[in-house]
Design a protein that fits this description.
Helix content is about 70%, strand content about 5%. The protein is of the alpha+beta class. Strands 6-5-4-3-7 form a 5-stranded antiparallel β-sheet. Strand 3 (about 735) and strand 4 form a beta hairpin. The protein starts with a helix and ends with a helix.
């Protein structure tokens, strides 16, 4: 047998086994594939199931929309009923304005009702507007679904057979009858499997087509329901909008009329206590005691609290939660203020520390009062206007009196307020007197607003107490002045005495005038007089404290601790000066406004000020106003603050941990600052009155200016941008410009600041750094090679020189080991052998390293007797002189000795 035949016979069993296994797997897999083919869901079955689920979901949505339509009709009916009820009240409220005998308290109560109605209309308008927007979104979404379903329906029709298409065209009823003729064939009929499959496919398509038709009807029904609901909301919103202006106008009329009536009542003379009689006074006091006793019963407060819970329960819960959140935030603010007070810059600023301490000690009372005031003004507690109004007045009185007490304690010291002989004690007594007298009067007005007798008695008691306080206080102050005049250490100038006497006269005048007005029957005018002076006192004290704080931060009034130790370093205080000046302007304007408000000029004055600031001035197509200018300045100041914070946070907390180079970090930070400034400037220009068209005109004019007069500035600006992006020069690089070495300190918009090693600052335009040659010694690498040249005398041991130079550079600190230093025998000079020692160091201290190397070379050469050569010259004179006589050269001129002179004389 041949060799090839043997190989075939040897592999034959393997091939037989492989063929057998392949056939077995094929036979086994065929039934399974057939079973999977039979059981696998057809695509039409999956589509049909999906459409059925959609039909069920849409049916549920339709039912919900029907319920929502019923609810919308009920809400519309309820809103229209409330609107009609409010419209009925409009003539009643208007009639109150025509009756001059109605008390102001009733007018204020009617105003509270009008305000509550106005707030209710606003809330309903907001609610219906929100619902209307929601329905509009649903309508748009449903329309998209309807359009998509119609497209799918059109795509199904071409897939049907011609007969099916004809049947489908006649209507869905005939489509459902057609499959019944082909679904149950006779047993004797031999139908082709392919025809059977086609028939089943046509049946599935017709069913899906019918389901799509039903789905289209559902979407159309949804669209109708949604449109009806939106129409109801639109009609209700329109009715509310129609009613709203009447109540807004009526509210303004009531405000104006109440102010007029209050001013009239101030000048109306009431019956005095002398003419009332003791019997009437006792009856009024007894009535007040009875009315006030009811306030301290549990049933009174239970009724009030139950009314609050049933009417505004959700607001009470939200008030409690928000109040707790505010307390937590105030606690964190208090801790932050404590850290700020420990700052070194505040160590020498007494008034700033005093202001921070006042805020820190009163932070909870201050924050709580502001929160309650804002929450009450938001209209959440309109059901209890008298309680809220009285509570806010008491809180405000407690707040301002507590601020004055804290300021007095911190300014004079805790011990000084406890000593009766000190004037600070009397100031504290006055503050407590105003606090408790004011709170008592607020309580009396709230409990018995119509009981004028009790109010008059309470005012009279306070006025007498204030007059007595004046007597005690000025008597104590006069004794202190006499002691100050006798004490030579204390200075008591005539100007100071004049100021004190003026304040004394004013204080007695306030008390006596109030007492006289009260006894004359002008009690309300006396109350207005005292309340206005009390508010004025608070405004003046607060304004003086703020003025002292601003003056402390003025750059010209810097404390000695802030003076820089190095006279050559001048701090940048221009921005601080601008901020202080702007705040001084705001301080003056705010002080004037607060004084006007202290004397009763409330909404009218503020509205006139706002109108004056908001008055627009037309310049071409642009409109400007003072308010826009103020807002623009504030935006720029805020941008400056944000840029400073961003520069510090972005550089120190983000980029500092990125591992980037210092120059790259500075470039990224500078570019981000440019972006922030661009955004801030655009926002400020928009707030000032520049619109998009105006900005386009301005930018176009700026472009023309750049093309003609600002070429250099624009060139430097673009060059600065190139420096920041390309970074051939970065902050911190050591560069050489025109032979001057320096370090790049800052890349500005127009120029780059380079500080030389002699501490001189070079202001180099950015364009010069781009267009001229600049040597960057630290570009990509801070290492550089330096050369020190030394010449030794002829005849020196050159190997010893080489060894010594290598030893010097190896032992000198800050010389890099790699690359290795080397010594070069450079040349045979005229009077020396020239050697160059080359070494690598860093650019920061190469001058120091070169100096150290030269010092060490000089020392070792002296120790090892290596002569450092210097230029020298020998002169030989042959004719006219005895060669045996010495000739001495002195400063390049020959000088003869005595022997040479005698010899020369003989020759002569």
């Amino acid at each position: 047998m041949r060799k090839t035949d043997f190989k075939i016979s040897k592999n034959y069993p393997v091939w037989v086994l492989a063929v057998f296994l392949a056939g077995f797997l094929f036979l086994v897999g065929t039934p399974q594939r057939q079973a999977r083919a039979e059981t696998a869901p057809q695509p039409y079955d999956t589509l049909q199931a999906s459409v059925e689920e959609t039909l069920k979901a849409e049916a549920q949505k339709i039912q919900k929309l029907k319920d929502q339509l019923v609810q919308a009709e009920q809400a519309k009916k309820s809103a229209l009923e409330k609107i009609n009820a409010l419209k009925i009240q409009l003539p009643i409220f208007n009639n109150l304005l025509n009756q001059s005998e109605i008390p102001v308290s009733e007018l204020e109560a009617a105003r509270q009702k009008i305000q509550a109605a106005t707030q209710q209309i606003h809330e309903q308008m907001a609610a219906f507007s929100t619902r209307q927007n929601d329905i509009a979104g649903q309508i748009q979404q449903n329309q998209e679904q309807l359009t998509f379903t119609e497209q799918q329906t059109l795509e199904i029709i071409p897939k049907t057979t011609p007969a099916e298409a004809a049947v489908s065209a006649t209507g869905p009823d005939t489509v459902t009858d057609t499959p019944n003729k082909t679904d149950t064939p006779n047993e004797g009929d031999k139908t082709d499997p392919a025809d059977k499959t086609n028939n089943e496919t046509e049946v599935d398509i017709s069913r899906i087509y019918d389901q799509y038709q039903v789905l289209l009807k559902q979407y159309q029904e949804k669209q109708t329901l949604l449109s009806s609901i939106r129409l109801i909301y639109q009609e209700t919103t329109a009715a509310l909008q129609e009613t709203k202006p009447f109540f807004d106008d009526l509210l303004l009329k009531f405000d104006e009329y109440i102010n007029i009536r209050k001013k009239q009542e101030l000048l109306e003379r009431k019956t005095s206590l002398v003419s009332i009689g003791m019997g009437q006074i006792s009856r009024d006091i007894a009535l007040f005691v009875t009315e006030s006793a009811a306030v301290f019963t549990l049933s009174f407060w239970a009724k009030k609290l139950d009314f609050v819970w049933t009417s505004n329960g959700i607001y009470a819960v939200s008030f409690a939660l928000l109040f707790l959140i505010v307390q937590v935030l105030l606690f964190r603010v208090r801790r932050h203020l404590t850290r700020i007070m420990d700052h070194p810059e505040l160590a020498e600023r007494f008034w700033s520390l005093l202001g921070l301490r006042i805020i820190r000690k009163s932070i909870f009372l201050l924050g709580s009062t502001i929160f309650i005031y804002i929450y009450a003004r938001a209209g959440q507690f309109q059901a209890l206007p008298s309680i809220v109004s009285a509570g806010l007045k008491m809180l405000s009185l407690i707040l301002f009196s507590e601020l004055c007490i804290i300021a007095l304690r911190l300014y004079c010291g805790e011990a000084a307020t406890r000593l009766p002989q000190k004037p600070a004690f009397y100031f504290r007594v006055l503050i407590f007197l105003i606090r408790w007298a004011g709170m008592g009067y607020i309580f009396i007005v709230w409990v018995a607003a119509s009981n004028a007798t009790v109010q008059t008695i309470w005012r009279l008691m306070f006025e007498l107490s204030f007059y007595g306080w004046n007597l005690f206080f000025w008597s104590a102050l006069q004794k202190q002045q006499e002691k100050a005049r006798e004490d030579p250490i204390q200075e008591w100038s005539s100007k100071k005495a004049m100021v004190v006497n003026g304040i004394k006269l004013l204080s007695f005048s306030i008390g006596l005038l109030a007492l006289g007005l009260e006894l004359s029957g002008y009690g309300l005018l006396a109350l207005y007089w005292l309340a206005s002076w009390s508010r004025t006192l608070v405004v003046v004290l607060g304004s003086l404290l703020l003025l002292k704080i601003l003056l402390e931060w003025h750059p010209k009034r810097a404390t000695p601790a802030e003076t820089p130790s190095d006279a050559g370093i001048v701090p940048q205080r221009s921005l601080q000066w601008v901020m202080v000046q702007f705040l001084m302007l705001v301080w003056g304007a705010a002080g004037i406004i607060l004084l006007v408000l202290a004397w009763g000029g409330k909404q009218t004055v503020l509205f006139k000020i706002y109108t004056f600031l908001g008055h627009t001035y037309q310049v071409g197509t642009m409109q400007f106003s003072l308010m826009g200018l103020i807002v623009a300045v504030l935006i720029l100041l805020v941008t400056q603050a944000v840029v400073r914070i961003w520069r510090h946070v972005f550089r120190e907390n983000i980029l500092n941990q990125s591992g980037m180079e210092e120059g790259l970090q500075d470039s990224i930070t500078t570019i981000s600052v440019y972006v922030l400034w661009s955004i801030g400037i655009l926002i400020a220009l928009t707030a000032f009155g520049f619109n998009a068209t105006s900005l386009t005109v301005v930018l176009g004019a700026l472009g023309i200016g750049l093309g003609f007069g600002l070429q250099n500035i624009f060139n430097n600006f673009i060059s600065g941008i190139i420096l920041l992006f390309e970074r051939p020069i970065q902050v911190g690089d050591d560069i050489e410009v025109n032979g001057l070495w320096g370090q790049v300190r800052k890349i500005n918009v127009r120029s780059t600041v380079v500080q030389t090693y002699d501490n001189a600052s070079l202001i180099i335009p950015n364009a010069d750094l781009i267009s001229t040659q600049v040597t960057n010694w630290s570009f990509k690498d801070k290492r550089l090679r330096r050369n020190v040249t030394v010449g030794v005398a002829y005849g020196s041991d050159v190997e010893l020189v080489r060894k010594t130079l290598l030893e010097v550079v190896e032992n000198t600190p800050r010389i890099l080991k790699l690359p290795k230093p080397d010594v070069v025998f450079k040349d045979f000079g005229d009077s020396a052998l020239i050697f160059v020692v080359r070494f690598w160091t860093r650019v920061e201290y190469f001058y120091t390293v070169e100096t150290d190397v030269r010092f060490e070379i000089n020392r070792l050469f002296r120790e090892r007797k290596i002569e450092i050569s210097f230029p020298q010259q020998d002169i030989h004179i042959r004719s006219g002189f005895d060669q045996k006589k010495p000739v001495i050269l002195e400063k390049g001129k020959p000088v003869l000795t005595e022997e040479s002179e005698d010899h020369s004389g003989k020759n002569r």
